[in-house]
Amino acid sequence: MTTSDYLNSILSSQQMKEDSDELEELRSHRKSVESLLRERFSERSPTIRYGGSQAKGTLILESYDLDIICYFPSDEVGAGATLKDIYENVREALAEDYYVESKTSALRLKSKETDGSAPSDFHIDVIPGRYTDASKADCFIYQASGEKERLKTNLDVHIKYVKESGVLDSIQLLKLWKVRHGLNLKHFVFELMIIKLLAKHSSLTLSEQLEFVWKELRDRKDPVGIEDPANPQGNDLSSILSEAWPSLKAAAEDTLKTIEVSGWSAVFGPAPAEAAQEKVRILKAAAAAVISPTKPWCPNA
Amino acid sequence: MRRAWHKAQPDALQRLKERIEQEFPELRLSVQGDVVFLKGSFPVRYGDEILDRYEIELEIPPDLGDSVPRLRETGGRIPWELDRHIIPASGEACPVVPEEWLLRPECGSILSFLRGPVRNFFISQSLVERGDPWPFGERAHGRPGLIQYYEELFQTNDPAAIVRYLECLSRDGLKGHWECPCGSRRRLRDCHIEQLRILRRRMPRLTARRALQRLNSRVTTSNARFEGHLRRQ
């Protein structure tokens, strides 16, 4: 198997398939969330749609969250006079069916049913906000912590920026790498960093792109400068990246050494097909070692 | 009616609980009246490695040793299909022909049942799920599967002889002047008496009678040869 085939097989194993249980569950929750919000804010015309990695095409199975945005028209005050009111009212609506955890801008949905342990996490964030004007492009979202109480953003600009970067495969594999190394950095900031680093290198092969990013991380003393394409002046992301930079550098250095010594499969694990074959081989060995085999039967013909 | 095994031997239940906690810590034991249940995650082990896991419920009958525990896969992973050896109406799994297990000396041991037929069943399911054939083979559904088993046990492919063997084993003692069940028309003492003695040690009279009943109850018109013979008994 070539490096390219190997990386593509890893990539393929991280896609959420159309008929997968995970996607079915997410869709079912989205339906339920949308119905709760539309019922509660029926006269407020909210825009409800997918955001985050699902909308950008960078979702990986290993670690995914579904972002659902709920934005109200700029002149609509019925959902809440202030952004904080909107955030709280949306939270209240969702709390009918979910245990809701407040995050900086998002509302994290968890199960209300618990068996005494922590509520199970549905991996769904609902992000309330209000459009800045009638064009329904830019939007303000509430910030529960931090210096500012609101942040201007634009979902379509984010989606376009990532989707048109030409390096979606690298983003997904590097997200997998980040997750497996336990690197603490917001996915969105990480994506922007990768796009910036690969801005003039999208013609490289997938393995070359990954190695290029890791070499840049290893060799650059200071973090690469990034900016939020939807709000270049108002959303400073540099401090977030600076904080994570030392751990990114260390992990990148380790990974490059690993590739040199043990090859790519030591970075992302065995290819799924190989792993499946290995599983069958071990199961067959376990069956061959059985001293008293038994044949299954059924009483009804 | 006999008392349920765990009521007659509370120590045995306690011992089972301790052994289960040691060997299968993800299985929980509970008692509901005369029935003992084991529920939870069953590991398919090979050496120290856990190859797979299945959510199961094992219903241990009051007459343990005379009846086979009832197994169900509760995680919804195995379809309720005869071809996967799950009874569609009840979801009950059929890891083994009951008499095949009940004739084994360890038939009264739940741990042996888990290590043997249950483990074998799930190793097989994991392989079949991946498109492989049944590693230990499989029995035909219904009565033909029972007959297959008795053919192997009695080393005959004559259904009438199978019934005669079971009849012979259902009686008290073995008499040398009886006609040999193999169909040779010779006396038992001149034919298969040694085989019958060995079989008698493995198959108590009660088990042989139950096996005969089971075969009788499963007779359908689809096997007239067998049915005709049973009617003549």
Structural overview:
Chain A is globular and about 70 Å long. Chain A has helices at 3-13, 21-40, 52-56, 83-94, 155-163, 168-180, 187-197, 206-219, 238-262, 265-268, 272-288; strands at residues 47-51, 66-72, 99-102, 107-110, 121-131, 139-142, 150-153. Chain A has two domains: 15-154, Beta Polymerase, domain 2 (2-Layer Sandwich), CATH 3.30.460; 165-272, Poly(a)-polymerase, middle domain, CATH 1.10.1410. With 301 residues, chain A is an alpha+beta fold. The model of chain A has no long low-confidence stretch (mean pLDDT 89). Chain A has eleven helices and seven strands. Chain B is of the alpha+beta class and 233 residues long. The two termini of chain B are 28 Å apart.
State the low-pLDDT regions of chain B, or none: 219-233
Provide the helix percentage of chain A. 40-55%
Poorly predicted runs of 5 or more residues of chain A: none
- Assembly state of the chains shown: heterodimer
Q: Would you tell me the overall average pLDDT of chain A?
A: 89
**What is the CA–CA distance across the termini of chain A?**
46 Å
In total, how many domains does the architecture of chain B comprise? 2
Strand percentage of chain A, roughly?
A: 5-15%
